[in-house]
Amino acid sequence: MSTSVLRAEFAPGTTVEATVNWMTRENGIPPGAPATYAWRFQDRDGRVLMTEPVEYTVVDPRFEWSTLEDDRLAVWWYAGGDALGRRVFDTAGTALDNMSQATRIQIPHQLQVVLYANDEDFESWHERVESWVAGQAYTEMSLTVQVVGPGGRDSWIRDVIPHEVAHLFFYQATHTALAADPPSWLNEGFATYQEFRSHDDEMDQVRWDVRQGELIPLRLISGSFTGDDDRIDRLYNESLSAVTFLYERWGAAGVGRLMESYRQGHDTDESLLEVTGLTFEEFQEAWWVWLDGPPGAYPTALAYSAPTPRPTEIRPTLPPGATVTAIVPRTRDVLAPAGASALILALCCAVWLAALGALSVSIRWLTRRNPRRPSSPAGSPPSDVRDSSTPDRTGSAAGPIAARS
Fold first, then answer.
1. Within 13 A of 193's CA, how many CA atoms are on the CB side?
2. Pairing, β 111-116 against β 143-147
3. Which of 15, 49, 72, 317 has its CA 20 to 30 A from that of 108?
4. Which helix (H) or strand (E) is 361 found in, with range?
5. Which residues contact 101 (CB under 8 A, 6 or more apart)?
6. H or E segment at 189?
């Protein structure tokens, strides 16, 4: 939650007209963000008038948006026609159904998916963004903004959209003010597990790392995933394998109980012990043996010697075939969204308004996350074939639908 106070410029008088522009681009406010505003007036004698709060959604006014939604999910897009909106909505709805039914968790807030048609449109509402960034998630707002154009590949939609929706689901299912958020290996592993494609390549790579003695201890998989591409891939693959181990050993209901334990304010050690009956160290050892590692040889955090990473680089979702390049400051001709504007007429009979009106804006901020593009070891392309050993994650979304343009 963040609050901004904006001052309105106007000429004092018995009738006052005031307008305020909230510069969403400069403040990093994403399209689709929920906001609340109110006007506060004060006269020269110190008397204050406060209007009732008004809720609204920040909208990029440059495009004519279409929306497809039900009580749990809303998709916003402006290019690609009804077919694209329906395809993304069905994919996100299926992923949400799978997670809710398997974990027995119903999240309280609607999820928002905003689609930009190309990189240029996506970049233009940012004050600054790396050229290879193709999506961001704002979990505290239950919002993700992605680049998915009219020619978006089915494989891209069937991996990235469930992954992003899973992050939003995971936050609502686990977040509490009583404790720190769950570790990155659990969050990223859960999101990757929800992708519709097979993950056999990633699992093979983790077992290879075990045989080579290159496994990174789970205790060290926290915070943003940074470093070179090989290390980042290893972090994602290990996270996926640890969550897959949870699903196979304790089932989806066990994963649901683990998330609920976090929401009750327990830390990782307490939650694992409650759900699995294992301490964190025992859980790591059991995972290691499940990966065909020799018993008793799990690399401890103290014994692990991490390679020196290159300077930190944040890796949000990458478009297919994208490469990471250095940011080059550049100007853009496209105007940023105008933000929130309001018009107020106030009639004062006895006194002149001498003070300035102020707009108080409250908005829930969302932590930026690090989505990634699917990868396979040895440079092989990601498979679009679902793993027959995992639950069926395809189908169509259910529930009443409301569409509007």
1. 27
2. parallel
3. 317
4. strand 358-363
5. none
6. helix 184-193
Q: How far is CA 201 from CA 130, 195, 241, 383, in A?
A: 29, 14, 11, 9
Pairing of strands 34-42, 358-363: antiparallel
- Residue-wise pLDDT tens digits, 194-216: 999 999 999 999 999 999 988 89
State how far Cα 298 lies from the chain centre: 32
**Across 218-272, where does the E strand assignment appear?**
none
Q: How far apart are CA 153 and CA 159, in angstroms?
A: 10
Please check whether residue 46 is in contact with residue 323, taking contact to mean a CB–CB distance below 8 angstroms: no
Q: Hey, what amino acid is at 227? A: G
Helix H or strand E segment including 120: helix 119-124
Per-residue pLDDT of 175-185, as tens digits, reads 998 888 999 99
Residues of the chain with pLDDT under 70: 1-2, 26-27, 131-132, 300-405
Q: What are the Cα distances from residue 212, in Å, to 105, 202, 205, 215, 238?
A: 38, 15, 10, 8, 14
Residue 220 phi, psi dihedral angles, 5° rounding: -95, -5
Among left, alpha and beta (phi > 0; psi -120 to 50; other), residue 117 is alpha
Surface-to-core class of residue 208, CB atoms within 10 Å of its CB (0-12 exposed, 13-18 middle, 19+ buried): middle
Give the Cα separation of 65 and 75 in Å (integer): 10
Q: DSSP 3-state assignment of 377? A: helix
SS3 139: helix
> What's this model's pTM, rounded to 2 decimal places?
0.70
Q: Are 89 and 75 in contact (CB under 8 A)?
A: yes
- List the alpha helices (DSSP H) in 264-346: 268-276, 280-290
pLDDT value of residue 300 = 62
User: Looking at residue 301, what is its pLDDT?
Assistant: 55
